[in-house]
Amino acid sequence: MLRATLIRLPRAGASLATARAFTASAASRDIIKKLEESLTPREAVERKRKEFEAKYGDKLKQKVEAEGVANLDALKAKKVVPSILAKRKAEQYRQEELERAERLRQEQERALAEAKEAKDAAVAQKKEAARVANPDKDTTGVKPLASIINLPLILMTPHDQAQIAGIWNTYHTTHPTLSASFVSATIPKDTYTKMLELAKSDPHFVLPLPRAGKDGEAGAYEMFYMQWLFHAPPPAPPLEGKPSAPLPPVTSIIFTPLEEFKQAGEWAQPYLVLTNYPDLADSHGLVLMRGEISAQSAGGPPGAVDNPGYLLTQQEAQLLSLALQRFYCSDIAPPNENAKDQQERLKRKQALRDFREKPEEWNWQGLVDMAYGGLV
């Protein structure tokens, strides 16, 4: 009895690819690769070795005969092993050279550090020896007071405040080379102490300076940036009958045009430097102020016709000094101060604080009146 053989035909519209026989496709090659990877490493290596020998058997046999060795393993021992050993030796040599170079670098850095330390110690020792040999020498950029006047003589002989002020101002106004480039004054100790308190909290400020216009007309002002610098206090002179107390610090106030400071910053040219010497603060109750005007290589600027060769006239330097005192003495209430004067004084103090705390909101209006109060 015949059986009907059923043949399943592809559905209409179905792809012929589904009815094809298997071919050596990429999918089949991936399956073979996975089967190979499933072998143990030893089996895989052995199989690849046999495949290699089967492919290059004749050439390898000729090479074995040419080298005069018994078999392929002996050929490997003769050719491959020395090459591996050479590579290992080269790698070891390279590593040793790297370690040697690193040791050399560390030794050089250590030698340089020791040399720098020895040089710094020698310089410090030299400076200390110079300081001990000449204790009055300037080491901070500020000349000691003893290098300007005969300080021991003043301390040895009786002088009152008026006499010391006369000696100090006469020295600067009659000096043959300094009289055109210096201003001087004396400050009571208590006033200086109050000024220091404000200066420590508000060491930066701006002050207007009256300057002649292009055609010489009045009413023009140039803004000057100023900054306090604090130096070590001088040694206190011995006082009879009471122990010496520490003196206030020496201070310097540097003035430069605001526009120049904006452009050059800390490298801006100082136009005026005021220095306060508190050496006689305890013995005589006075601080000596000295202002040095910077020299200019060519003729003076407009408005300096009375003082050619300097960046400011003495009158301009005195105005800046006056404006400085009006702001930094704003904590000092003068005797019989009325309500209006008190309000103006406190307004100057507030201007210092606002310049420090709220510079972006700081108001320039009224600065001239606060600085000079109708004096110019």
TrEMBL record:
Lineage top rank: taxon: Eukaryota
Mention one GO biological process in which this protein takes part, according to its record.
mitochondrial proton-transporting ATP synthase complex assembly
UniProtKB keywords? Coiled coil, Mitochondrion, Transit peptide
Q: Which GO terms describe its cellular component?
A: mitochondrion
Spell out the coiled coil positions from the record.
Answer: 87-132
Matching entries from InterPro entries are given as: ATP11 (IPR010591)
Subcellular localization is given as: Mitochondrion
Q: Does the keyword Acetylation apply?
A: no
Tell me the Pfam families matching this sequence. ATP11
Primary place of residence? mitochondrion
DNA-binding in keyword set:
no
Q: What family does the database annotate?
A: Belongs to the ATP11 family.
Q: What is this protein called?
A: ATP11-domain-containing protein
